[in-house]
Structures are given as C-alpha cells and as structure tokens.
Write a structure and sequence with these properties.
Layout (H helix, E strand, L loop, with lengths): L1 H11 L6 E2 L5 H9 L13 E7 L7 E4 L9 H17 L6 E5 L10 H14 L7 E6 L1 H5 L3 H4 L13 E3 L3 H13 L4 E7 L5 E2 L7 H22 L1
Parallel strand pairs: 1-8, 3-6, 4-5, 4-6
Antiparallel strand pairs: 2-3, 2-7, 7-8
Length: about 230
C-alpha cells in the first residue's frame, strides 16, 4: 500500500508523468489513485477505465468503457465515462468520436433501466449537454460494430451504423467479460488506461501480455503529451 501512495506522490508532484500499475492488487492501486488528498483525481471528475482494442475484423481502434472502476455507473457517472473516453479519443487523433451506449436491446424497455439511460444520454447529446461526440443508444453490440446489421434490423436511421469508436457498457461485468472475450477468444491487441485522472495511469492486469503492457505505455505517452498541452 505504501508503494502505491509513494507512486501517486511522484506523479502528483510532477516528478513522473505516468502512473503504472505493477504487481499490486487492483484494490490497493485504486485506493491510492482515488484518495481525495494524495491521489490523482481531477476535481469534480469521475475516474473511469479505458480498454483500447485492435481487432482483426474491425476497421479501426475500438475503445471500451468501463471494465475496471465503476461497477454500476449512474446516469451522471455515464456522462463522465463518455467525457473521459472522448478526451482520450481526441488525444489519439479521433475527433468527434461515435459513442455507442450498448445494451441487450436496441429499443427502450421500461423493465431494463440501462435502455432508458442510453436513450437519455442520446438526448443529452442531441441538445448539447454532452459535447464533442456522437452518442447513440440503446444499441445492441452488433449494431454498434457491424455495418451490415442496421439494414437487416431496419435501423438505417440510427446515428451509429456499425462504425462506433467508443463502446459504453451498462456495467463493469458486461464490459469486463466483453474485453476478455475480445482478447482471449478473438485475439485482439489491447491496452488499458485510466481516464479522468491528472495524469495517465497504465492499468494493465498482472496476467496481461507483454504486448498489451507495451501498447498501454505507448498510448499513455500520447495521452500525457495531450494533457500537458491542454494545461499550458
């Protein structure tokens, strides 16, 4: 635990540009990062996790949120998740990214709170309360990433038609399971960071491959330079 706080202190005092999770358990690392006095929180911002994926059958980088930090994000927390992911997307050169609020259904079901919240997020985007991106939901995962599916389902009028940049999941379970499937079954390359922090945080699992850890540091460097440029 002392190591985690010592590391946040180095980043907080600008003696280091990037925080990297090592072999410590996630709960200890998060406790240090989320600490109100000694951590790396941005004031008024909810911290969230980002998983960046490069899949063989998808035509561009795909960003998942949140598979690590927010178990059951509220509507307001989902706004923060979107804003954090959009900021990172901008840092790696993706302007006005398409954010798919995915659910089990592409239509609102009053018995499924996630579908109602996905629609609210879409409307908040429509009226300018969520900016710098295109939000569409509720969307099924296939509608979000497969351009053939909207035609089959009669959904050609959707804002996102198989070309999402960011996937906003309804909870940590669906996000974590999905990204593990992408890596271990689909063979996707990956990187994992935290966003909403004062500096990039590499947040790979102890079981992640060397390639994943290397990718995470590369993205963290881009993100660090972007954040430092914004602060000037």
């Amino acid at each position: 635990m002392e190591i985690a706080f010592a590391t946040t202190e180095l980043v907080r005092t600008k003696k280091a540009d990037i925080y990297a999770k090592g072999s410590l358990e996630t709960k200890y690392t998060l406790k240090a990062i989320l600490d109100n006095e000694k951590g790396l929180r941005k004031r008024g911002i909810n911290i969230s996790g980002l998983t960046i994926l490069e899949a063989k059958k998808y035509h561009k980088v795909l960003i998942f949120t949140d598979a690590h930090v927010r178990p059951y994000p509220t509507l307001i927390e989902k706004v923060s998740l979107i804003n954090n992911a959009v900021e990172f997307a901008n840092a790696i050169g993706i302007q006005n990214p398409k954010v798919a609020a995915v659910c089990a259904l592409e239509k609102v079901n009053p018995k499924m709170r996630e579908t109602e919240e996905a629609l609210k997020l879409t409307r908040m985007n429509d009226i300018g309360q969520i900016r710098g991106c295109i939000v569409d939901g509720p969307l099924s995962f296939d509608l979000a990433i497969n351009p053939k599916i909207p035609k089959y389902k009669g959904m050609q009028n959707r804002k996102i038609k198989g070309d999402a940049d960011i996937i906003l999941f309804p909870n940590v379970h669906s996000a974590n399971i999905s990204y593990n499937l992408m890596i271990h079954v689909a063979g996707a390359n990956s990187a994992t960071l935290l966003s909403g922090t004062t500096a990039p945080c590499v947040f790979t699992s102890r079981s992640d491959s060397m390639n994943s850890k290397f990718n995470s540091f590369i993205f963290a460097i881009f993100y660090s330079e972007y954040l430092q440029g914004k602060s000037k």
